[in-house]
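Attaching the record inline, Q. Sequence:
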Amino acid sequence: MRRLFLIILVVAGLALGGPWWRSPISETDLSEKLVLTRLDIPEGKIGPARFIGAWELESPDTRFGGYSALIRLDDGCFLAGSDRGSILRFSPPGTAGCRVRFGRFAQSNEFDKRLSDLESLTRDPESGRIWAGYEFTNAIVRYEPDLERFEDVYPAEMRDWADNGGPESILRLSDGRFIVISEVDAGWTENSTPGLLYPSDPVDGAQPMAFRFHRPDEFRPVDMAQLPDARVLVLMRKVIWGLPPGFASRLLVADPADIREGGEWRGEQLLEISGAVPPENYEGLSVEPLPDGSVRIWLISDDNTSQFQRSLLLQLEWNPREKARG
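Structure, as predicted:
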């Protein structure tokens, strides 16, 4: 009974964000210091991919933590977005030249103050524009490359999406279409979640086609990235309830050509994070094409600014010509 009571407290803390769950609040620190420490984990195979390394990100800056989205910029720098509406710009491990920068996405007096729970990012490499998906308000915001100018939209098709499971994943495809997927169904019992396929930029008023995304074994979609062959990698995450809670993560491969109006979009399992790789709350995904046709896959974890989790960065490599496991 006591264990059940403690688990209920953990669930309540995750749902309500109670102070007992989060790290103690410290004095404001705007030092913009960031340290990446490589974890002592040997390289090895994870399914058809190769695990290259894992790094823990640490910073005394009070804006640090809670990263739920990750994209790569033209200069090779990473841009991570947090569920508190903040950003972190930093260099990938083993590289230099990117000044560490903490900040926030632009806001104005008219900007909805609830727009802080950023869950997804995607980018157009030609224009440099960035789109962000926000939960609770179920909004899509388009930022100019300077991240200071923006336009937003609150799609009617997303109005009834779960407050805590709105546009968890958003992806601009190379052909200009957009895919948006909710993390959960509003009823919390379905084995699929709602998705939208836009023929063009939703901020410009494009009308979407609705579909469902299949989520196997109670895993939830939390991010997407496109592969060079036009298929899509989907990052899936499941909470393993315990004291403290744990997490399981998978990567699926899905083809946008299979999306049908009113149909169910499915992917094939590529791999599951397991073995010596820390099973953290991975929510951000970025894909980097390599000259030999393979891709470098980056995952970043959301520490929920809690005392029990870490901000980790994983690096994997995979050749998309290798068949994903069903």
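Confidence is low (pLDDT under 50) at residues 1-21. The chain is about 5% helix and 40% strand.

More tomorrow.
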